[in-house]
DNA sequence: GATTGACGTGCAACCGGTTGCATTCGATAG
DNA sequence: CTATCGAATGCAACCGGTTGCACGTCAATC
């Protein structure tokens, strides 16, 4: 009655061999090098195998060949909407090559991440670390043991895939400048984030080129709440438009503005980053889109290339971003009428 | 220069044994049954081990013990916002017991799901299948080989964790009735979905109890777009409030209503399901919340219990839902002064 | 002083595959 | 008729651990 247990006794290669009247080796070869065997032998073995529900044991195979057929993917927070599309794409890419993927959630902690990597090391052929919290040193140490690909983390010598926000941010600034804005504000994310640093720099540069004033307001963590919380600071700058570190922050800002009777985009323009919300906000959010799915796919693909012994050298893939104009940007109030 | 390769040669147990001047077995025991060895022997071995960077090989251990230390988690779509919190919670729960988790994305296809399960079988101790697309028969077959827990899928005899929307939906209806609504509409999701069937039934029952008229409008797939698309149908029913299959659909409906100049909640009330958007919409969405994270935790916990040989019998865990009132519900226009 | 037992450790088989090498056998060549 | 060769298959070692059992040592017991 109990449903527990029932494990272990999966049929083994010996079971197949015995009922087929051949040796273990032959069964093995029937699966791995059918060409080496007689055609009808192979057919018979496969037939028997599937009839008794035999599936080669991944673990045993891995032990003897060293080819685990597994890879690991580690992210800081599965629930952060930026990651699911990335995870999904990486997943499917690995699947195309019949790899199984371990998922690790570092919970924003380098200790946890280090623990996970160690746990994974002995059963994967390679790993992808997203926005890793580890030190360069630890990353290099791990990369010595197994092929490693980084996402949004730039460590020279380690293959990495980076989302280059510069282009999209420049487009956003050009867009705002064209609408007539003269003073904008960048609402920054975590100081330690590579992406944040890059975006802030891009805003500064872009603003200079378009002769816009730029203020910086710090939202400690990237979230809806913190976006909502910094609205007073934003309004205090006198700016007429904001570029937020990410969409969640932008959305919080929109709510905060609405609470104060500031209408978007009539009175104030808002631009997000990451495009994780699609057109789902109201008004729908103008944002810098970055194809996080493509990022995941590229990283996994790069890793698989390394596993295929195709040397990738000091790969540094960057992915472009682009502005998606929706309905939260408009000319500043002063320009009207 | 190339960063590829560098795999394999992780230090082995023999390496440690050799430099420690002991046998393989002793090293093994130093890790698994330290109490059986001399205290200083253990200390020395562990010291040497960490100094040469030795970590026990998960795969080899699994092969000889049959305890893989891995579990698999399969979902139809990682990118569906309902799943990430669930995945995250299941992840962390497994981690507490030092289990690694494989993530599988069935891509809404039973073939893909079946393939993944077979791939996982030989390297996991058990698996959690979320909203499985497999037939009862296949599920039972797999459950024979490895402990299996289902989420939002009700197969008698197989342990399962189900989100019971009934309570939350009833609360929602009571809430709408109290506000003075007389005619509501349920915007349904996929016909094949267990959750959808349950929610629709709950709406029907609740409406009867509160003597409300209820119409059903079908949104084929649960998405922002389809929600937006069915707005004309919704308005055609003459209802003054809608309960949507999920939050994405609800959000699409809100946008569709706004496009037509129908103001929420002044002219029309909207209630979502799943609470995946938090308070991030504007106006913030009243919704039936369901703690998908707790669902993931419970399912993984149940699986681990089974692995611990604690028989769980024909477990059928149901999780309650509850209404979260935010700003998309208000009295119907007619009721107002 | 011999017996007993606890303790610490080594030996070797085993988990379920893979693979280099040896073996068998029929066919073709000489 | 025999030497040769290639195709098909078996043997056994190995991957890196785990674990039942045997062995040796030393102290407590009679």
From TrEMBL, chains A, B:
<feature type="domain" description="HTH lacI-type">
    <location>
        <begin position="11"/>
        <end position="65"/>
    </location>
</feature>
<keyword id="KW-0238">DNA-binding</keyword>
<dbReference type="InterPro" id="IPR010982">
    <property type="entry name" value="Lambda_DNA-bd_dom_sf"/>
</dbReference>
<protein>
    <submittedName>
        <fullName>LacI family transcriptional regulator</fullName>
    </submittedName>
</protein>
<dbReference type="InterPro" id="IPR028082">
    <property type="entry name" value="Peripla_BP_I"/>
</dbReference>
<dbReference type="Pfam" id="PF00356">
    <property type="entry name" value="LacI"/>
</dbReference>
<dbReference type="GO" id="GO:0000976">
    <property type="term" value="F:transcription cis-regulatory region binding"/>
</dbReference>
<keyword id="KW-0805">Transcription regulation</keyword>
<dbReference type="InterPro" id="IPR000843">
    <property type="entry name" value="HTH_LacI"/>
</dbReference>
<dbReference type="InterPro" id="IPR046335">
    <property type="entry name" value="LacI/GalR-like_sensor"/>
</dbReference>
<dbReference type="Pfam" id="PF13377">
    <property type="entry name" value="Peripla_BP_3"/>
</dbReference>
<keyword id="KW-0804">Transcription</keyword>
<dbReference type="GO" id="GO:0003700">
    <property type="term" value="F:DNA-binding transcription factor activity"/>
</dbReference>
């Amino acid at each position: 009655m109990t449903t527990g247990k029932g494990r272990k006794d999966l049929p083994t290669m010996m079971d197949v061999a015995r009922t087929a009247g051949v040796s273990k080796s032959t069964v093995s070869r029937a699966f791995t090098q059918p060409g080496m065997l007689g055609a009808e032998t192979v057919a018979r073995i496969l037939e028997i195998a599937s009839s008794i529900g035999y599936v080669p044991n991944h673990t045993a195979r891995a032990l003897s060949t060293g080819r685990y057929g597994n890879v690991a993917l580690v992210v800081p927070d599965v629930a952060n909407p930026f990651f699911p599309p990335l995870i999904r794409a990486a997943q499917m890419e690995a699947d195309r090559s019949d790899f199984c993927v371990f998922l690790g959630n570092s919970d924003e902690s380098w200790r946890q991440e280090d623990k996970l990597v160690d746990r994974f090391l002995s059963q994967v052929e390679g790993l992808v670390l997203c926005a890793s919290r580890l030190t360069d040193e630890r990353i290099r140490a791990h990369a010595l043991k197994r092929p490693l690909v980084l996402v949004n983390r730039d460590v020279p010598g380690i293959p990495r895939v980076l989302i280059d926000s510069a282009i999209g941010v420049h487009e956003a600034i050009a867009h705002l400048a064209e609408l007539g804005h003269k003073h904008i504000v960048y609402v920054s994310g975590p100081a330690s984030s590579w992406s944040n640093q890059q975006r802030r720099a891009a805003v500064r540069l872009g603003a200079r080129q378009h002769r816009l004033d730029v203020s910086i307001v710090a939202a400690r963590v990237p979230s809806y709440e913190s976006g909502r919380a910094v609205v007073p600071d934003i309004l205090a700058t006198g700016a007429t438009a904001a570029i937020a570190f990410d969409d969640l922050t932008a959305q919080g800002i929109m709510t905060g503005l609405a609470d104060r009777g500031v209408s978007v985009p009539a009175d104030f323009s808002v631009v997000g980053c990451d495009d994780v919300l699609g057109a789902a906000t109201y008004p729908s959010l103008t944002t810098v889109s970055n194809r996080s799915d493509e990022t995941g796919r590229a990283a996994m693909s790069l890793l698989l290339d390394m596993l295929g012994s195709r040397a990738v050298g000091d790969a540094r893939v960057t992915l472009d971003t682009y502005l998606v104009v929706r309905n939260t940007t408009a000319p500043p109030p002063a320009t009207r009428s």
